[in-house]
Amino acid sequence: MTTNIKKLKKGSLISESSHYVITDKVPGAFMCTHLESGEEVKIGSSYIAKFTHSADLYDKEVEVTKEDKRDGTPGIRTIFEGIHSSQVFTVCFAKQNKPKTNKKLQAEVDAVVAQFSDSIESVKANKKGVAQAAKKLVLKLMLNPILPFEEGEDRILRGYKVQFTSRDGRYNCVDIDIPKAEKEIGIRPVNLNTIKWIIFGGVKYVVK
Questions:
Q1: Nearest Cα to 57, choosing from 82, 34, 93, 89?
Q2: Quick check: is 3 in a domain?
Q3: Which of 32, 54, 112, 175 is 20 to 30 A distant from 85 in Cα terms?
Q4: Phi first, then psi: what are they for 170, rounded to 5°?
């Protein structure tokens, strides 16, 4: 906040770093909630067009890989790590895997064993090729192994970074869609290793 505003004069230097959620559209302007203060403000359309960035809108979609290509084309990791400001974005990433309980894991193993046994018994009863049937069942299990964890579901976060370096690939970001409360500051980690797409700077980068 600029104090003693009456002392501002020609040549005075000021700056702004704010985030807004648009609440309404009025002739020539937008009504917005200023996230840092919670106050309602009116911002002209021309100002928004010239000096702001959108977390939701994009002009083009680009397919990228996870890692940088040999020709120097940046991958999604480099793109996300390269965000060194509080510019807003929307990112889709997989949440952390959740370990299964021993009881649930054993139940899944027992179900597969029972299915395998029933299939083999059925083949034997019909006097068909047991070895061939067993090979198909083993191949099916190899292609769909029993995992000791529940794969993390997709999570979409609209917000901005508050952490710009990381050792494990997790970056704390403000999620503007989480209601703030006494013990809830709306900060969530984004794992750049599981990012599926991101909208940033008018471009949607999709991992292929």
A1: 89
A2: no
A3: 32
A4: -100, 130
- Only one residue has tokens 């359309």, namely 45
Residue 161 lies in a domain: yes
Structure-block tokens of residue 60: 């083009």
- What DSSP designation does 181 have? B
Q: Is residue 1 part of a domain?
A: no
Domain co-membership, 200 together with 178: yes
| Measured distance CA(153)–CA(171) in Å, rounded | 18
User: For residue range 106-146, what is the model confidence (pLDDT) as tens digits?
Assistant: 888 888 888 878 877 777 776 667 777 777 777 777 777 87
Q: Give the DSSP H or E segment for 142.
A: helix 130-143
- Residue 194's φ and ψ, nearest 5 degrees, are -120, 15
pLDDT tens digits, residue range 11-42?
999 898 899 999 999 999 999 999 999 999 99
In the structure encoding, which two tokens stand for residue 170, read together? 């997790």
Query: Pairing mode, if any, of strands 98-99 and 149-150?
Result: antiparallel
Q: Which domain holds residue 34?
A: 16-51
